[in-house]
Amino acid sequence: xxxxxxxxxxxxxxxxxxxxxxxxxxxxxxxxxxxxxxxxxxxxxxxxxxxxxxxxxxxxxxxxxxxxxxxxxxxxxxxxxxxxxxxxxxxxxxxxxxxxxxxxxxxxxxxxxxxxxxxxxxxxxxxxxxxxxxxxxxxxxxxxxxxxxxxxxxxxxxxxxxxxxxxxxxxxxxxxxxxxxxxxxxxxxxxxxxxxxxxxxxxxxxxxxxxxxxxxxxxxxxxxxxxxxxxxxxxxxxxxxxxxxxxxxxxxxxxxxxxxxxxxxxxxxxxx
Length: 272
Prior knowledge:
Blueprint: H1 9-13, H2 16-34, H3 36-74, H4 79-93, H5 97-119, H6 121-125, H7 139-164, H8 168-176, H9 181-211, H10 223-234, H11 237-269
Helix pairs in contact: 2-3, 3-4, 3-7, 3-10, 3-11, 4-7, 5-7, 7-9, 8-9, 9-11, 10-11
């Protein structure tokens, strides 16, 4: 009987797809460090990484807060609040993100500026405040506003599903013990709903990193926009978009692995 050495335990547990992704990452990193053309493109696009992450973090944070408010309205006992929140969710989710981006940037933004000038009319007339202009409304903030509104509708459904997954008997018992609605939500509902909410919420954050590439349509200097400008000026489309794809894959796969780790950690923590 011949002896066959067993592979290390850690190596045997690693999925093949992760090993393949790791190999692609090493090859991409080697190309950037060893090839002068790729290195120059990487330096050009590296500034867009900060813009992409900044837009994503600000927009996702605002979308999470707004989504929580909408979810609470959707689960409210007041019918008017439920109807308004449902109308908001269905309308926003039914419009493509790119269309909504253009609508916010070129329709809603001028309307908001006009509304601000109308409300602040007396202060402007007395010279206490300068009138706002559409040009002063930066396209980065228009993109953040659009992503916030779009993703808040999807995040609201995630929060609603997590809240409704909590056993109603626990909520009724908490109310019977005299807990207020706020304390019932903070101490009973939200800690249990967090297990259901966290994985899809993390996936939405990863999706927003990818969808943030749409802000390049407004001229925001993110990775995609800088890649477009670099490729059109150097005609190195293959090399440029290889680096663009490498940067997005590095961010999204790293975040996806983090979400998987958090999901497993919470499953172990709350295992019965």
